[in-house]
Amino acid sequence: MYRKKLEVDIILDVLEAVLKRQPDSVFVRSLWHQYQERGGLSKKQLEGLYGKAQKCQELPAAKLATLEAVIRQRPTRYKSAPPVAKPLYEKDNNVGEMISEILARYPQHKRVLFFKSRFDNNEALTPAEVTELEKFRKLLK
Hints:
Elements: H1 10-21, H2 26-38, H3 43-54, H4 61-73, H5 93-105, H6 110-120, H7 127-140
Helix pairs in contact: 1-2, 1-3, 1-4, 3-4, 5-6, 5-7
């Protein structure tokens, strides 16, 4: 991000004034370094700087007001609520009914027992396997 070439840089003036008053402040020093490197600060960082600058008596009120205006211009970012967790696989009741019908008549049917074990383990049956189950069901009727 490139900094704009401005004649008056209020943010830099405020940063330097706060640095003169609190030279040991790691927070202000990191903000100053980031401003020099990237050319700007986020809204949260500007709010933190504003809080530090309010404690500085020798800073003119006009610069504080300008910094506050810059903060208000910035958009506020909100974190959206996480989406409701949806299960990866939802059991199809029709498939479960078909499996139970077939196993009621032929409890040792190996292919249907295989489908039942997959159905019980919440594994999705492919459409070809579902049509195979429907075929078995039709043969029973």
